[in-house]
Automatic annotation (TrEMBL):
Gene: Cyld_0
Keyword line: Cytoplasm, Hydrolase
Species the sequence originates in: Panurus biarmicus
Keyword Cytoplasm: yes
Protein name listed in UniProt: CYLD hydrolase
Molecular-function annotations in GO: cysteine-type deubiquitinase activity
Length: 226
């Protein structure tokens, strides 16, 4: 049976992950993948099914590399060598339609779609609806919004709410996992110099047809003003 290590929590996370030679070692434009893998697995088990479940389309070789060469070392020692990530990148280059996963900078969404959908065969994590149209399924949500002068150092809660509002989006159901891509990535442009992580995310106002309280009388609301 494959060895497994639980995600790092609280004091253990600080002890194992803090200091020099910690995290996932970068090499040859791997930052998009390093950051995504660290976020998905270092301190949470919500996507551990990716490491163990025999999904219908699952590539067990890629699953084994992800589990044994990246996630387990990260949780056990707090460090993953660049060669391990390169091994994964080489396998993804063989599986996907793109030949530049080993050397070029990519959008994190492209990486997540490839490994979750085409390589492991996982069902989409999010169901979204825009303006009453047909619902869409996806694996992560990328924040799109115009530059707003009143947001200098925003938190994640503010960015998600404003992005959903500007795009007239709603969550069709509560997601089992809500992966959000921040608007500060890539070499050329970063909308915000810093973003404060929200340790909890209130999605009450983002849910479609969710019962909510009227802000005036306290009863169940029947109208919503954007």
């Amino acid at each position: 049976d494959p060895e497994s290590f639980p995600p790092l929590r609280n004091e253990a996370a600080v002890r194992v992950l803090q200091g020099r030679m910690k995290g996932i070692q970068g090499h040859c434009n791997s930052c998009y993948m390093d950051a995504a893998l660290f976020s998905l697995f270092s301190c949470t088990s919500v996507l551990d099914s990716m490491l163990f479940m025999p999904f219908p389309l699952c590539d067990r070789n890629v699953q084994g590399i992800l589990r044994d060469e990246i996630v387990n070392p990260l949780r056990r020692t707090g460090f993953v060598r660049a060669s391990s990530v390169m091994h994964l990148r080489e396998q993804l280059t063989d599986k996907g339609p793109c030949s530049s996963f080993t050397n070029a900078e990519k959008d994190p969404e492209e990486f997540l779609n490839l490994i979750m959908q085409q390589v492991l065969g996982i069902e989409p994590l999010l169901k979204l609806q825009s303006g009453g149209q047909k619902e869409q399924e996806c694996y992560c949500y990328q924040i799109f919004m115009d530059k707003q002068e009143d947001l200098v150092v925003p938190d994640v809660q503010q960015l998600v709410e404003r992005s959903f509002l500007s795009s007239d989006l709603k969550l069709v159901e509560i997601p089992s996992c809500f992966i959000i891509q921040m608007p500060r990535f890539g070499k050329e442009y970063k909308m915000f110099s810093k973003i404060i992580p929200s340790l909890e995310l209130d999605i009450t106002d983002l849910l479609l047809d969710s019962p909510r309280e009227c802000c005036l009388c306290g009863d169940v609301a029947t109208l919503e003003c954007s």
